[in-house]
Structure to design on (854 residues):
């Protein structure tokens, strides 16, 4: 049982590394003259699109309403987030091997905090892009801002913008659940032992 | 007596009145099946795709038009042999060379026969070839971009009509002389036609990976008129066939003098045998002059190569390469059925049609069953090669295509109809009228090993009352017939560009997946490319000024330029930085005496301009690119000649 909980914990930790292989979020823009939509993907270390030119095309559209150009090099999170993921993976493996419930719980809470912080950060970036508009923009619609939703769909002028978690986020979720399983297995395994001790007393 | 006469007259008059009234009420015959039934068969719903691409020659427009079938919708006109101001083709510095010939810049031709490239006898959707008649040329169109990629001039040729007629694996294209010429050219009396004039049949090799054309060899032939051609298929692969008329060798009033003999010839050429002779060193090199223009995709510029030699084979010195098959009365088209066995000779002034058998031709050659020999070319015995005769099918047979189900479809120019007949017993099974005067016909793949026997298109020369009149000049037309049943049924009638001389069609699925959406900017190695706005600049060297300009929605960089002088030679090297589908930008300069530029995403195109007036002049984007297209404009300041203005340029503050 204990060995199994270690394996589950280690595998769960390693799942975090999937965020290097899959985007964690996607934003799609739909309009009639863009069949198939324009799809952007947010990774822990980059922003990509369906084609190598998607970002250029989004930036061309955005400049009409005065939005800033999206330049992945200028977003510091994309530089340090990979380190956080690697740290959490190593921390998770260590927590599983330690077989200490408290350490496992600490890892889980840390992951939740990182997740919430990440979402807040993402929201702030979206807010900034959507609100910090060039006053000289060719197209100015009074009261209109261009912040895409955090999760869900919303019309921004002629575009329907849809923002959703992508595959990478599901791996993070799975990682959390597996570590949770480890926690409960440890809890169950420890229980009878404690009772035995109490009996001896 | 008198009274009876009056009564009789009255009766006749009354009868005539009735007939007159009846014929007034007679509606114009449409020739179509029930309108709703036909409409359903050609209806392609908005947003849906057609089943076939049809490539139609533009005839004397020199271009190729692209239609969808069965809808008959026009998608594009591809500029080939003629300058096209709409696209800047032949005006931009990059494409001017495409129209270079040994005669200099020739910005027009008469484009007749499109031919799709083939693999194993079936269209493969890679390239489209088409001949230019007037200044003998063959062009290759790249079907990933729908742009002309190459044009080769044919030396020693006059009127390149029997061309390009591709072989089964696109090994060769052919060319021939509709007008025989003194070869090599010399100053002789036209009355010396019989002694001095020669025909040539040219074989153009196609490089299998890139499609690059090169003149492989020419056969020096008797001075007949070589009219049309086709390549063998299946068992007859390795042979090409040409019709020849004016065996009389008349040089004046040909409509009479070239129509005297009972039989002219189908010329059968064994090109595999010719290759053997060339390998043995049989050919002779002749000095000549022709151009080969190739669009270099890397440099995005057409380059002209001047050639001065051609390899000549003479039938007399190469026995077994050329044979003549007697064919009644000035044959026009020659067509080989999908099995490769039946060779149909369309004797345009004959009442009957002769159908030959390839197997019988081989036996006749083996038995040396010859009628005579002309300049070392054996004339095979007509009866020995003949498989059968289609008796009195119509008047003026021109061309035949096949449905792959054992039927042949022949056009009759004079009786203006398509006649369907059975290949095996030569019996006529159906006929439909064409409106009017049909020339070529086209079944998708109908000249290949695998026809898609669903439709036939009649390509008509005369339309008279078919459409709303447009003054003396009327559109030519294409008519689409359903041939899936036992009876041919007219479905659709649509006008075309220039003359839809001949056409080819191919299932859309063979082209759509390879269709390019834009050109990658990182692969643009144009000599004068500007890959980012920061690199835009203006450079003066003497009186030559090069403006390195970029376009992206919705501005030019630079859009304000000063320091140009009257008399300068200005080159606008405009690079379209867009990297998305369907975002070309245009460029036009006020007072430029050529055309606009139309620049595809990732391309660089160059417009030449000589400023002639002092002042400030605008330029702008011509292709509606975006919501701020109207704002996509700029100014150039032109200072007096001899002044010394500072060269400056900018965009924004």
């Amino acid at each position: 049982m204990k060995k199994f909980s270690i394996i589950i914990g280690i595998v769960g930790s390693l799942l975090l590394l999937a965020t290097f292989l899959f985007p964690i979020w996607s934003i799609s823009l739909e309009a009639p003259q863009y069949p198939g939509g324009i799809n952007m993907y947010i990774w822990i270390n980059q922003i990509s699109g369906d084609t190598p030119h998607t970002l250029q095309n989004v930036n061309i559209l955005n400049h009409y309403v005065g939005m800033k150009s999206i330049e992945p090099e200028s977003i510091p999170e994309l530089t340090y987030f990979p380190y956080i993921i690697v740290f959490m993976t190593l921390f998770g493996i260590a927590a599983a091997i330690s077989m200490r419930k408290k350490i496992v719980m600490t890892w889980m809470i840390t992951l939740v905090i990182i997740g919430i912080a990440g979402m807040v950060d993402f929201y702030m970036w979206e807010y900034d892009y959507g609100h910090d508009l060039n006053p000289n923009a060719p197209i100015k619609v009074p009261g209109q801002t261009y912040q895409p939703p955090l999760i869900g769909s919303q019309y921004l002028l002629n575009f329907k913008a849809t923002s959703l978690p992508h595959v990478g986020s599901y791996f993070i979720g799975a990682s959390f659940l597996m570590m949770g399983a480890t926690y409960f297995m440890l809890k169950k395994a420890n229980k009878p032992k404690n009772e035995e001790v109490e009996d001896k007393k | 007596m008198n009274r009876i006469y009056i009564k009789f007259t009255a009766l006749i008059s009354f009868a005539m009145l009735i007939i007159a009234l009846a014929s007034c009420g007679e509606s114009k015959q449409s020739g179509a099946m029930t309108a709703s039934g036909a409409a359903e068969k050609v209806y392609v719903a908005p947003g849906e795709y057609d089943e076939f691409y049809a490539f139609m020659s533009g005839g004397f427009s020199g271009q190729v038009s692209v239609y969808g079938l069965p809808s008959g919708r026009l998608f594009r006109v591809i500029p080939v042999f003629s300058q096209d101001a709409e696209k800047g083709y032949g005006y931009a510095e990059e494409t001017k060379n495409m129209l270079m010939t040994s005669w200099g810049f020739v910005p027009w031709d008469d484009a007749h026969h499109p031919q799709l490239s083939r693999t194993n006898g079936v269209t493969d959707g890679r390239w489209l070839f088409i001949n230019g008649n007037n200044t003998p040329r063959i062009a290759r169109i790249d079907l990933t971009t729908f742009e002309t990629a190459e044009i080769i001039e044919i030396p020693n040729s006059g009127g390149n009509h029997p061309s390009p007629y591709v072989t089964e694996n696109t090994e060769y294209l052919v060319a021939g002389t509709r007008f025989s010429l003194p070869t090599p050219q010399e100053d002789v009396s036209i009355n010396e036609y019989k002694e001095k004039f020669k025909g040539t049949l040219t074989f153009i090799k196609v490089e299998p990976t890139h499609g690059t054309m090169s003149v492989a060899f020419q056969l020096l032939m008797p001075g007949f008129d070589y009219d049309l051609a086709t390549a063998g298929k299946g068992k007859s692969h390795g042979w090409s066939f040409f019709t020849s008329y004016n065996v009389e060798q008349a040089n004046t009033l040909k409509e009479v003098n070239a129509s005297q003999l009972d039989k002219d010839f189908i010329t059968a050429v064994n090109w595999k045998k010719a290759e053997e002779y060339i390998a043995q060193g049989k050919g002779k090199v002749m000095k000549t002059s022709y151009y080969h223009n190739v669009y270099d995709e890397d440099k995005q510029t057409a380059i002209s190569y001047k050639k001065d030699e051609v390899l000549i084979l003479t039938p007399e010195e190469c026995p077994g390469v050329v044979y003549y098959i007697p064919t009644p009365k000035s044959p026009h088209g020659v067509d080989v059925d999908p099995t490769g066995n039946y060779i149909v000779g369309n004797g345009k002034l004959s009442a009957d049609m002769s159908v030959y058998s390839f197997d019988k031709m081989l036996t006749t050659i083996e038995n040396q069953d010859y009628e005579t020999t002309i300049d070392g070319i054996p004339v095979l015995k007509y009866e020995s090669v003949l498989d059968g005769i289609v008796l009195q099918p119509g008047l003026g047979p021109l061309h035949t295509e096949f449905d792959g189900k054992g039927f042949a479809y022949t056009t009759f120019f004079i009786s203006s109809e398509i006649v369907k007949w059975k290949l095996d017993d030569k019996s006529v099974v159906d006929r439909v009228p064409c409106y009017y005067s049909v020339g070529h016909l086209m079944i998708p793949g109908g000249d290949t090993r695998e026809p898609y026997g669903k439709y036939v298109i009649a390509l008509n020369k005369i339309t008279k009352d078919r459409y709303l009149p447009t003054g003396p000049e009327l559109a030519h037309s294409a008519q689409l017939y359903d041939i899936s049943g036992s009876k041919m049924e007219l479905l659709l009638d649509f006008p075309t560009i220039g003359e839809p001389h001949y056409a080819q069609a191919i299932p859309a699925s063979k082209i759509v997946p390879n269709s390019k959406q834009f050109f990658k900017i990182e692969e643009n190695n144009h000599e004068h490319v500007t890959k980012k706005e920061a690199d835009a600049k203006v450079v003066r060297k003497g009186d030559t000024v090069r403006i390195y300009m970029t376009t992206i929605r919705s501005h030019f960089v630079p859009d304000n330029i000063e320091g140009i002088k009257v008399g300068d030679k200005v080159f606008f090297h405009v690079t379209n930085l867009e990297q998305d589908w369907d975002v070309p930008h245009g460029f036009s300069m006020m007072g430029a005496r050529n055309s606009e530029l139309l620049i595809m995403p990732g391309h660089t195109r160059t417009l030449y301009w000589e400023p002639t007036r002092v002042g400030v002049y605008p330029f702008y984007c011509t292709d509606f690119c975006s919501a701020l297209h109207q704002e996509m404009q700029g100014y150039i300041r032109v200072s007096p000649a001899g002044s010394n203005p500072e060269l400056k340029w900018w965009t924004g503050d």
